[in-house]
Amino acid sequence: MPTRVTIILETGAFLYDVQDKKPHIDVGYFETPSASDIEVRVDGRQVQPPPDPKLGHGNNRIDVQHLEADGTTVKTRVDRSASFEQDLLRKVDLYGPTEVPDFIETAYDCILRFHSGTFESSDVRTRRFTKHLVGNDQDANDDNNTRPIANEILVHYDLVDGEVLRLRREDGKDLWSSDSVASPAKLVEVRLLTDDVLKPSYHKAALQHKATHYFLPNSDPPPMNSHGGG
User: Fold this and answer.
1) Is residue 230 part of a domain?
2) What is the pLDDT of residue 18?
3) Do 53 and 70 contact (CB within 8 A), yes or no?
4) Can you tell me the distance from the alpha carbon of 69 to that of 72, in angstroms, rounded to the nearest whole number?
5) Residues 39-67: pLDDT tens digits?
6) Residue 163 falls inside a structural domain
7) Which residue range(s) make up the domain with 15?
């Protein structure tokens, strides 16, 4: 029986347009201030985090690779579910069509590159954002309540015997690998963490603002897509 491995993105900036069908998906991410950026559960039981559980910084890249049983061939099929493309927060939802800010891709601590996997939305609900002034961060007392949006993105992989899923840093070291999971396992969940402290990182520092204001979510930042249209 295959092992289902699910990577859970609590936040992240999806650095592509919805119409862009590249063979991979890049996601900008920031480290948390805590000791670990990753939480792993095997069949519902939390296990020890990897030896070096930090995503790293300096805009490094982490390749999320699903290896065939030969140990070298990387699968390259990305499946974008309808819910994933429908439920992502888009910048136009907050800023309107004329003031959509660009992502500053170099601002992120790391870029996760997904070469494969099935992407779907999770925890879909409305969110409240508050408007703040770019110049001094003051609350402008103007809320924006969104349509129902994904507050997590799930990326699924079904591994058969001999296959491996790994998160490999550009220095060749693995942040995490399914090799570390004792078999047999039915469900492995790899959660990439975030917290409330990172709101300004995602929603101010990593955006090239065209307006005099920016928006902060009322709690942990949800995933956001670069596409400006509907």
Assistant:
1) no
2) 59
3) no
4) 8
5) 999 999 999 989 999 999 999 999 999 99
6) yes
7) 3-225
